[in-house]
Design brief:
Elements lengths: L3 E7 L14 E2 L2 E2 H8 L5 E8 L11 E4 L4 H9 L8 E4 L9 H14 L1 E7 L4 E4 L7 E5 L5 E10 H10 L10 H7 L5 E4 L10 H13 L6
Helix pairs in contact: 4-5
């Protein structure tokens, strides 16, 4: 069985939420602890949380490291704690506490098959390209059947991610997800079906939605 390390970037400021969203209660657990619990699996050898210190992990079995000024900096800090004995690394947003075991299974398996895999959802809204901020003139409409919204986990070989960081020519604060680093390094990234329930909590409305998903599951009409 392949063994994975999981990096949880948790160094954000939660500015849009108004306070530290990762310590907020969600159905009896904090958001962060619910996220961590999802990766307590037999195929996960280590979990590393990159945190600025505000989000309390509260579990001695979980390794922590300092966060950075951007998500990519935090992931790189955590990556440096992993040795060559780790072949595969998964990066998962700390604020996605509803990730299912089936989605983790699917993404891990696809990474082993293809070398790198990312959970994704089809874009359902019409997307216009324009130079912001608004108001701005619409330049063109993008074909949405070719567009996919990224989720996590994002899974790849540790050595490939280390190499991608070393070769990255963009400032790290312009890197919005881990797959982008691999793309810039010329490596293939494969997309696998994500889940609507695998939401990222950014605002208090997202928290209300997460609570509703946990309460009603796939049967929203009681």
């Amino acid at each position: 069985m392949q063994r994975f390390a999981v990096i949880i970037p948790a160094g954000g400021s939660s500015s849009r939420f108004g306070r530290d969203k990762l310590t907020e209660p969600l159905a009896g657990e904090t958001v962060l602890m619910r996220t961590l619990r999802a990766f307590r699996r037999g195929d996960v050898a280590r979990i590393v949380v990159a945190t600025a210190g505000g989000s309390i992990v509260g579990d001695e079995s979980i390794q922590t490291c300092g966060g950075g000024p951007s998500r990519a900096h935090s992931v790189r800090n955590a990556l440096k704690t992993l040795g060559e004995e780790i072949e595969w690394v998964a990066v998962h947003d700390a604020a996605r506490p509803l990730v299912s075991q089936e989605l983790i299974d699917r993404t891990f398996a696809a990474a082993i098959q293809y070398g790198a895999a990312v959970a994704a959802l089809p874009v359902t809204l019409t997307v216009k390209q324009a130079d912001g901020p608004l108001p701005a003139k619409a330049q063109r409409t993008l074909a949405r059947h070719t567009l996919w919204a990224m989720q996590t986990p994002q899974v790849m070989r540790r050595a490939d991610l280390v190499d991608a960081y070393a070769r990255c020519t963009l400032p790290l604060d312009q890197i919005t997800d881990d797959a982008q680093l691999l793309e810039l390094a010329g490596r293939e990234v494969w997309l696998v079906p994500g889940e609507d329930r695998n939401i990222k909590i950014t605002t208090w409305q997202d928290m209300l939605l997460a609570e509703a998903i946990l309460k009603y599951g796939n049967n929203p009409w009681p």
